[in-house]
């Protein structure tokens, strides 16, 4: 009876002990660390990073966790973060020479040779001159300095200290290859495989040697041998698939991948390879189908969940993507990649402000997440903040030079604001990192043509067509170049070729129509648009282009309005069509229809700055000053540095007796952003006029008149400024010009009164 009484008490005590253990931070951090190690050994580096992070959050001074986190980051090529973690290890353990060696390697790879030598290599040589790893690091330093003979000497020392290390021969082979000592390089690689037949690095290096030498048969044989050496390692299979893809043997590559999925059914990197290959080849449909199957088979695989969610976002299956992402964040609240996915979903849902908040949270957790920087740039761009967008895209490109989206987004932004020098440099970077991408050559052709480098532009256009003969992009840029030279038949042919390759290309149709409009043949332009609409009847962009030709070329405002309305019915996010429909109504004399159009456009596209500006201009036309002011202010709420909204609101304040100092500040903002705009010069001049700075006002008004000599308002302002500056002759000249240009000028009575006071009407 006494035993029966004591047993529950003992069990309760044991339970309390277990609870206490789980609350012990030392036990908890060790569990996270060991879990991270298990993930690391299985090649699940993302999962390992999460667990090492958890260990560090439990104990920020856990040096071993920082070290292993750094090693996992290296595996995923997160170099900056790895450097930060190795640095933290040395702060905690100054004598950790492994961390010193790794930091030295990273600094050398980044070209920071002096820092590597002074802060790490000299210390290593002093403390342990007989360590082969130290001489291997010194070899990297010599190679980074351009001294390959010196690097090979250091490798000889390292091998002399430990002649049985496979990795030392492997490194020596790499330097010999760089020195074009190909026979010696092959010998070193083979020696590495002999010393450690199971070393996959050595096996892969030998296969890579053959591939780089163009010996594809030998490379394939070596990669297949590597697969036999370790049938469970996905790396040689991946290398074989890349080789087969380069050779154009897609069928065999897919066969290898299907076999890999079967053979490595318990290895995430292995069973994901087929879906990743589809994605890399741009086949989103098959990639999504493959990952949908993987998700059902491996519902707990974090990488499968992330990749499947990413594909669902790209396929606009946002609800499903959101469910997976929510599950990831519930399990791993600090997962920056899952937060990035949530940000992408919000972007796709048209919620850029919320996306900014989420993506910034992701970057607080991992400032080196280049993909999140890219998406944050997209979010800022949707908000109209292109300055911040470019900053994020530059960060993304710096952190991930291989991240094509960031490079392309940056180039597109530079192209949009006509920064030709910046675009040229950005496009050259794309070409360097991805020489087979047509976009790099196309962007550089645009930049080169605008910089007057026509030979370079021509070369880039030809290269764009060469690398992607089935893409319309190269032909579109070829057409643009021929248009600049007024070689219209050749331009027409190039644009027609682009449309034959992609019947949905709005750029191709736009180019073709421009060739006809340039030759003053709007009927042909309209016919071209109608012909393409017959082929692609659901294209909002094509109806937009048809309306533009009817509006600008034919002056048929009613027909243009019909076309723009169809563009909007097809796609309510086509704000350009809303803008042009409103202009068509204004041209036809219907300000009320224009007002209603812009109001509806804003309902459908609430953050489109230009729609708010155009709405403000219609309100001004109707003399609804407070409504106009509210519209311009809304535009500035969305994009605080928008120069047109700043200019318009400044002028409105000056005309309506508003705060002159505020108007002056806004006018200066507009002037800085639009230094060549006569309107911005006039507004700033009018602000100076009302501040009594007549000399400054006169200079600005003169500039505006010079650039736009038939603008009655500019002459009026200049005449009034000359009057205030006591220059009556000049004042009379420009005030008379006002009435000559516009006899029914709005302020004609004021002009006549001023002329009368000056002694002549």
Question: What is the compact description of this entry?
Answer:
The protein is mostly helical and 761 residues long.
Protein topology:
Blueprint: H1 2-23, H2 25-41, H3 45-58, H4 63-75, H5 79-92, H6 97-109, H7 113-127, H8 132-144, H9 148-161, H10 166-178, H11 182-195, H12 200-212, H13 216-229, H14 234-246, H15 250-263, H16 268-271, H17 273-280, H18 284-297, H19 302-314, H20 318-331, H21 336-348, H22 352-365, H23 370-382, H24 386-399, H25 404-416, H26 420-433, H27 438-450, H28 454-467, H29 472-484, H30 488-501, H31 506-518, H32 522-535, H33 540-553, H34 557-570, H35 575-587, H36 591-604, H37 609-621, H38 625-638, H39 643-655, H40 660-673, H41 678-690, H42 694-707, H43 712-724, H44 728-741, H45 748-758
Helix pairs in contact: 2-3, 2-4, 3-4, 4-5, 5-6, 6-7, 6-8, 7-8, 8-9, 9-10, 10-11, 10-12, 11-12, 12-13, 12-14, 13-14, 14-15, 17-18, 18-19, 19-20, 19-21, 20-21, 21-22, 21-23, 22-23, 23-24, 24-25, 25-26, 25-27, 26-27, 27-28, 27-29, 28-29, 29-30, 29-31, 30-31, 31-32, 31-33, 32-33, 33-34, ...
């Amino acid at each position: 009876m006494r035993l029966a009484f004591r047993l529950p008490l003992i069990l309760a005590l044991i339970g309390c002990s277990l609870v206490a253990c789980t609350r012990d931070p030392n036990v908890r951090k060790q569990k996270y660390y060991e879990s991270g190690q298990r993930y690391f050994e299985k090649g699940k580096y993302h999962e390992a990073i999460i667990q090492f992070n958890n260990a560090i959050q439990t104990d920020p001074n856990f040096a071993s966790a920082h070290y292993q986190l750094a090693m996992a980051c290296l595996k995923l090529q997160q170099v900056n973060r790895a450097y930060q973690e190795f640095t933290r290890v040395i702060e905690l353990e100054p004598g950790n020479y492994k961390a010193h060696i790794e930091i030295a390697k990273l600094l050398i790879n980044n070209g920071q040779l002096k820092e590597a030598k002074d802060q790490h290599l000299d210390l290593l040589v002093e403390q342990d001159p007989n360590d082969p790893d130290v001489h291997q690091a010194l070899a990297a330093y010599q190679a980074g300095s351009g001294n390959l003979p010196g690097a090979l000497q250091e490798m000889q020392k390292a091998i002399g200290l430990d002649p049985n290390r496979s990795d030392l021969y492997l490194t020596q082979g790499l330097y010999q290859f760089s020195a074009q000592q190909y026979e010696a390089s092959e010998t070193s690689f083979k020696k590495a495989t002999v010393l450690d037949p199971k070393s996959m690095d050595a096996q892969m290096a030998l296969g890579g040697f053959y591939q780089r030498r163009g010996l594809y048969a030998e490379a394939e044989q070596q990669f297949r041998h590597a697969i036999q050496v370790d049938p469970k390692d996905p790396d040689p299979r991946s290398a074989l698939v890349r080789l087969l893809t380069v050779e154009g043997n897609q069928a065999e590559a897919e066969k290898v991948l299907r076999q890999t999925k079967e053979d490595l059914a318990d290895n995430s990197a292995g069973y994901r390879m087929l879906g990743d290959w589809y994605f890399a080849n741009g086949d989103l449909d098959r990639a999504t189908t493959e990952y949908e199957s993987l998700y059902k088979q491996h519902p707990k695989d974090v990488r499968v969940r992330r990749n499947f969610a990413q594909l669902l976002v790209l396929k606009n299956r946002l609800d499903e993507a959101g469910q997976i992402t929510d599950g990831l964040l519930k399990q791993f609240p600090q997962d920056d990649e899952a937060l990035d996915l949530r940000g992408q979903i919000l972007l796709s849902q048209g919620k850029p402000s919320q996306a900014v908040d989420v993506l910034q949270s992701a970057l607080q957790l991992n400032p080196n997440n280049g993909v999140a920087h890219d998406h944050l740039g997209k979010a800022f761009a949707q908000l109209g903040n292109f300055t911040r967008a470019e900053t994020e895209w530059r960060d993304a490109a710096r952190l991930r030079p291989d991240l094509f989206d960031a490079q392309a987004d940056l180039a597109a932004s530079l192209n949009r604001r006509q920064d030709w020098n910046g675009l040229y440099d950005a496009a050259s970077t794309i070409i360097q990192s991805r020489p087979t991408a047509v976009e790099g050559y196309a962007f550089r052709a645009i930049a080169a043509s605008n910089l007057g480098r026509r030979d370079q532009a021509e070369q880039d256009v030809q290269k764009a067509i060469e690398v992607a003969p089935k893409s319309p992009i190269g032909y579109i840029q070829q057409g643009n170049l021929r248009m600049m030279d007024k070689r219209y038949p050749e331009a027409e042919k190039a644009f027609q070729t682009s449309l034959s390759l992609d019947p949905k290309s709005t750029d191709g149709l736009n180019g073709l129509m421009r060739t006809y409009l340039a030759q003053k043949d709007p009927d042909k332009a309209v016919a071209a648009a109608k012909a393409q609409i017959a082929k692609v009847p659901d294209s909002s962009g094509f109806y937009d282009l048809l309306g533009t030709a009817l509006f600008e070329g034919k002056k048929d405002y009613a027909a243009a309005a019909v076309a723009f309305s169809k563009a909007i019915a097809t796609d309510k996010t086509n704000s350009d069509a809303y803008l042009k429909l409103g202009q068509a109504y204004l041209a036809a004399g219907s300000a009320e229809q224009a007002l209603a159009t812009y109001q509806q456009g804003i309902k459908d596209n609430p953050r489109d700055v230009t729609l708010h500006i155009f709405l403000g201009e219609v309100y001004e036309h109707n003399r609804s000053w407070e409504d106009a002011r509210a519209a311009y202010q809304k535009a500035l709420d969305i994009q605080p540095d928008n120069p047109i909204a700043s200019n318009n609101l400044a002028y409105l304040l000056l005309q309506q007796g508003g705060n002159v100092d505020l108007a002056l500040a806004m006018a200066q903002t507009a002037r800085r952003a639009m230094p060549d705009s006569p309107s911005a010069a006039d507004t700033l001049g009018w602000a100076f006029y009302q501040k009594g700075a007549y000399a400054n006002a006169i200079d600005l008004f003169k500039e505006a008149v010079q650039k736009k000599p038939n603008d009655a308002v500019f002459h009026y302002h200049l005449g009034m400024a000359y009057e205030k500056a006591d220059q009556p002759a000049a004042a009379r000249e420009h005030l008379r010009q006002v009435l000559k240009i516009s006899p029914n000028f709005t302020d004609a009575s004021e002009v006549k009164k001023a002329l009368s006071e000056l002694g002549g009407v």
